Amino acid sequence: MLHVLLVSTSEKTTGILKEYLNMEDCMNITACKTASRARRTALETAFDMIIINYPLADEREYELPQDLAEKSDASIMLMVPAEVYDIIADRMEKAGIYVLLKPVNKTVLLCVLRFAIVTQKRIRAMRMRNRSLKDRLSEIKVIDRAKCLLMEHEQLSEAQAHRYLEKRAMDSQMSRLQVAEQLLKKYQLP
Fold first, then answer.
1. Which of 110, 118, 161, 180 pairs as cysteine with 146 (C-beta 3.0–4.6 A)?
2. What is the CB neighbour count within 10 angstroms for residue 178?
3. pTM (two decimals)
4. Is residue 123 part of a domain?
């Protein structure tokens, strides 16, 4: 499920964006009318995508998108009027914020939203894969430390230490990691 934060003083724009976003499956949409409320909400919840429709009643300097970009890894989309587009587009894009010129064509908006959604799904999948690889790497480190201890304290070769861990894991119906952790405790290493 993707978590989306909409920030807009316009009920009409919020309604249109919600309608477009709800065309996709698994969307959890939160709407705020002010920059201050958006900041508080972003501290409480991790969002995958943030869409900000300027102008906002309590902010004129366009600091909200940059603050949110620094504090989260959400895709951020900023909708701004034509008179400020040229002034802030470069600054926002350098911060990784996508800037759309208002009024936004429905087709363009739908394409941009779909692109952002697909991008967030890919990022989420890569994060999960990264987490899985980190877990596997830490498991390998623990097992290798246990092998080193067996080689040092029991004078086993690397192959013998490996075989010892595997055999003990099979015999005790435990994972190699659990056996390795027991060995680390036995030799009192963290």
1. 180
2. 14
3. 0.73
4. no
